């Protein structure tokens, strides 16, 4: 009567991937977020200072979706010394009609990685020049890899560059990704050179001081900033945000608190000049207005995206019989 | 390497029950809450007005506990028309050293029922007269039953009375509980009579208007108010709260927002007269000072209790090999 499906990371990697259907599932939620449809409470955070850790909880109810995802993300930064990854977590999905638990997704952060990468592709789809073919990736971790792959869903990419704080990480990224994406990926030691030669730049770092500033901008550039999702993080200088033709973000509320908007507002940026990606997708606000414009999209990540990717994963898993079903109520 | 244990309601009923060890696990957290030890963020709520539902999330990190529970409670009030219970939910437990998920507890609210009942017993243990032997229960649902049972852990109860809005529910409660507890339980149609003849009164209703007022009080009475856990609920009149000798609550912050303190403060009650149960347990504040005093304890329920009961359940389940273990990381 009350069945819960348990899905492991392996099941979820079978169920959803970096594909167009997944991209469109993510794209569809931005207009809902911007319209204020459904209910998306602020992120809940449990600090565990004793162990240099924190747990963040995101959730959203979206009208028309059969599931409500509750995502728990754990970041415990002493883990690498124990041979464990710093980041982890899981999602649970509840039936939006009855509130009954439907699924536990032990994804170890895979669904977040996926929906974050797809969000970058959605941003580029709506904001980057149509003829963008050179990508610059800042950072060389898991999300950097996924961002580059995801961009190939929406633009004909012919070349990529990568910069990372550690040069050896950038070299490894270039080697691996060249094989994977089927075009040249080069490591560079100069961030200004990377930006100069790219049509689309994606920043994916945990930086706490700006990496990119206004002096690096050039005509036609699009930048997607993925890294900043906490009060102390930032990747773009305030003068860069002030200088671009269009500043877009997934959620003004979140960008103001956790994203690039925070420092820009302090420096005098006018909040009413910030546009949400949902408004651009819905056609309610212009994004890029010509090929010379410089655009930025700041993505902090929303519970709505979690609900979208988790709903898709649960539907696919059920259709394909993935995972293990439990009867949770005693007979 | 990264194993998660899945426990169903049946497993959890095997693991933890209304016992003294469980009671002491719950009791131990109140002083931590009052001391501000650990981290207990405000309750997160996702409203689902389309389906007359809401999801509440509670959590707490407590120093010295190996697990951090994240509890998701669902209340969907059109469910009974579908033959489903209104209330449900689950808990997840994360390792407090590494943040890794350790357990998913598909308890359908059992652990919440249990820790709430035990909290009532803890309140009576510290606030009711030692010779209290007559209990009055207001409400006749699951929590009403558990409260009566839990009180037998801490006081020699010889008699109980029950009042409910629906007389037939009270009659059914009296019949069933007389058999279960081994002493007489009588249904009454008069709430003033119930209070008049009781040493301990426990209110367990979803009332939105006061059921008990100052005129009903008598020397030596202790009242535990369980029902109010939301902005629109209340069981005690403001004049009752003003009239008692000691007003205790599990969390002043929560009682002010969700509990009985809210209306009392509006009516002029001095917040500095509210004492937390943790301070009474720790001996930092007096509870009842003599046998004539009238005491009240308002319990809104805290994430700390969830962490305490879930930690105990997970330890017991692991020791006894209950549930199903999943390897969540791909090999």
Could you characterize the architecture of this molecule?
Two copies of one chain form a homodimer. Chain A has 331 residues and is α/β, with parallel strands linked by helices. Chain A folds into two domains: 3-111 and 304-327, ornithine cyclodeaminase, domain 1, CATH 3.30.1780; 129-301, Rossmann fold. Chain A is 34% helix and 24% strand. In chain A, strands 9-8-7-10-11-14-12-13 form an eight-stranded parallel beta sheet. In chain A, strands 2-3-4-5-6-1-15 form a seven-stranded mixed beta sheet. The relative contact order of chain A is 0.19. The mean pLDDT of chain A is 95. Chains A and B meet through strand 1, helix 1, strand 2, strand 3 and strand 4 of A and strand 1, helix 1, strand 2, strand 3 and strand 4 of B.
Keywords:
homodimer, 331 residues, alpha/beta, ornithine cyclodeaminase, domain 1, Rossmann fold, 2 domains, 8-stranded parallel β-sheet, 7-stranded mixed β-sheet, 12 helices, 15 strands, 24% strand
List the helices and strands and how they pair.
The structure is a homodimer of 331-residue chains.
Chain A: E1 3-8, H1 9-15, H2 20-27, H3 29-35, E2 44-48, E3 53-60, E4 67-76, E5 87-95, E6 101-106, H4 110-127, E7 134-138, H5 142-151, E8 159-163, H6 167-181, E9 184-187, H7 191-196, E10 200-203, E11 222-225, H8 238-243, E12 246-249, H9 252-258, H10 261-266, E13 274-276, H11 277-282, E14 295-298, H12 303-320, E15 324-327
Parallel strand pairs in A: 1-6, 7-8, 7-10, 8-9, 10-11, 11-14, 12-13, 12-14
Antiparallel strand pairs in A: 1-15, 2-3, 3-4, 4-5, 5-6
Helix pairs in contact in A: 1-12, 2-4, 4-5, 4-12
């Amino acid at each position: 009567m009350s069945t819960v499906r348990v899905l492991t990371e392996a099941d979820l990697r079978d169920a959803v991937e970096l594909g167009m259907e997944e991209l469109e599932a993510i794209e569809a939620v931005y207009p809902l977020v911007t319209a204020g449809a459904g209910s998306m409470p602020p992120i809940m955070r449990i600090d565990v200072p004793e162990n240099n850790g924190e747990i963040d909880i995101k959730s959203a109810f979206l009208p028309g979706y059969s599931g409500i995802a509750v995502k728990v993300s754990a970041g415990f930064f002493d883990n690498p010394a124990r041979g464990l990854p710093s980041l982890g977590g899981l999602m649970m999905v509840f039936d939006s009609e009855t509130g009954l638990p439907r699924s536990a997704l032990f994804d170890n952060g895979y669904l977040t990685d996926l929906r974050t990468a797809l969000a970058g592709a959605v941003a580029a789809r709506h904001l980057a020049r149509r003829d963008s073919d050179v990508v610059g990736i800042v950072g060389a971790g898991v999300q950097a890899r996924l961002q580059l792959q995801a961009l190939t869903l929406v633009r004909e990419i012919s070349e990529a560059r990568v910069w990372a704080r550690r040069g050896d990480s950038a070299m490894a990224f270039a080697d691996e990704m060249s094989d994977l994406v089927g075009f040249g990926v080069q490591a560079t030691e100069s961030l200004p050179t990377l930006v100069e030669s790219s049509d689309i730049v994606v920043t994916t770092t945990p930086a706490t001081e700006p990496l990119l500033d206004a002096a690096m901008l050039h005509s036609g550039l699009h930048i997607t900033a993925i890294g900043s999702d906490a009060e102390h993080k930032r990747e773009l200088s305030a003068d860069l945000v002030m200088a671009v033709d269009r500043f877009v973000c997934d959620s003004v509320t979140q960008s103001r608190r956790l994203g690039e908007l925070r420092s820009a507002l302090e420096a005098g940026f006018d909040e009413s000049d910030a546009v949400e990606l949902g408004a651009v997708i819905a056609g309610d606000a212009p994004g890029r207005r010509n090929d010379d414009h410089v655009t930025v999209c700041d993505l902090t990540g929303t519970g709505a995206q979690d609900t979208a990717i988790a709903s898709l994963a649960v539907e696919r898993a059920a259709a394909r019989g993935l995972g293990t079903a439990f009867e949770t109520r005693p007979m």
